[in-house]
Amino acid sequence: xxxxxxxxxxxxxxxxxxxxxxxxxxxxxxxxxxxxxxxxxxxxxxxxxxxxxxxxxxxxxxxxxxxxxxxxxxxxxxxxxxxxxxxxxxxxxxxxxxxxxxxxxxxxxxxxxxxxxxxxxxxxxxxxxxxxxxxxxxxxxxxxxxxxxxxxxxxxxxxxxxxxxxxxxxxxxxxxxxxxxxxxxxxxxxxxxxxxxxxxxxxxxxxxxxxxxxxxxxxxxxxxxxxxxxxxxxxxxxxxxxxxxxxxxxxxxxxxxxxxxxxxxxxxxxxxxxxxxxxxxxxxxxxxxxxxxxxxxxxxxxxxxxxxxxxxxxxxxxxxxxxxxxxxxxxxxxxxxxxxxxxxxxxxxxxxxxxxxxxxxxxxxxxxx
Length: 369
Ligand SMILES: [Zn+2]
Ligand SMILES: [Zn+2]
Description:
The protein is of the alpha+beta class. It has a domain at about 80-210. It is built from 6 helices and 13 strands. Strands 1, 2, 3, 4, 9, 10, 11, 12 and 13 form a 9-stranded antiparallel β-sheet that branches. The protein has a two-stranded antiparallel ribbon with strand order 5-8. Strands 6-7 form a two-stranded antiparallel ribbon. The two termini are about 40 Å apart. About 20% of the residues are buried. The chain binds zinc ion (2 copies). One zinc ion binds near residues 153, 154 and 197. InterPro entries: SSUH2_homolog. It comes from Adineta ricciae (Rotifer). This is Protein SSUH2-like protein.
């Protein structure tokens, strides 16, 4: 039995050598499996690795065309800055002036406010170095603009009348004799430490500038095929262009900056796409916000791959793209570990979506026959 088979195999080999792969081979297909092109073998391996997929139909498939395709991943990072001014007020000792040797008289005549230098324009009058990190926060005390004020409640006497005995030091008991006893609140003194200034008589007001930086990161994909963006993101890409952290503002010209972008793929207008996405995703949404752009970082990475079209026979119809009739497609791209990965979204035994993309259920509702 085994001898017979060996003989048959030998015969076929001889035949194919003699006929040089001519049409006559077709008659021998029932003797040995048709030799699938490498691309369809790869597709078969991929389909077999999926849960519930059925790779059988590939045996009768034929490749129609293989086209080289390109995808670009563009990363645009813009560092934004916001500035906010706050006034930090704390109780602070206030020394009342003396007039004719009297502090009481001094309190009557003195200025109750001591101004600091004007703060000015928080955007133009203070230069703050831009951090190297994508996100950062710093707070600066504008100490030259520190101002002081006297406590309005105690007028720098640091004490106020006791609220319980109203300065009397004694309170009346609610009894028949109207007895007066020492006030517990002020222990009989009639005065309390001023609660506003904590007994210090005044306040210090320090203007504080808080500068915050954050990064808006936009990743855009451009391609002349149908590869899923997550596949481009995970696949092997080659850097082709880079802008390494240049000074940037909302009035900087993106057109000028992108002038010398390499346009390697005629049907992907890279420059036009990038400029459009810059306006749509970075500039327009932030134009009216109270922040400034400080830094631009930009990179373009390219991925070359193949788009394969194959035909499956009359009883298979492309359900996802009905105009393609019996033709299906897949992409073969350099995956994470540099291997050739497959991406497809119209394989006929694919799932209708009930178990997610990795599972194709072999039920009549989903099967396209
Ligand atoms: Zn006070
Ligand atoms: Zn009291």
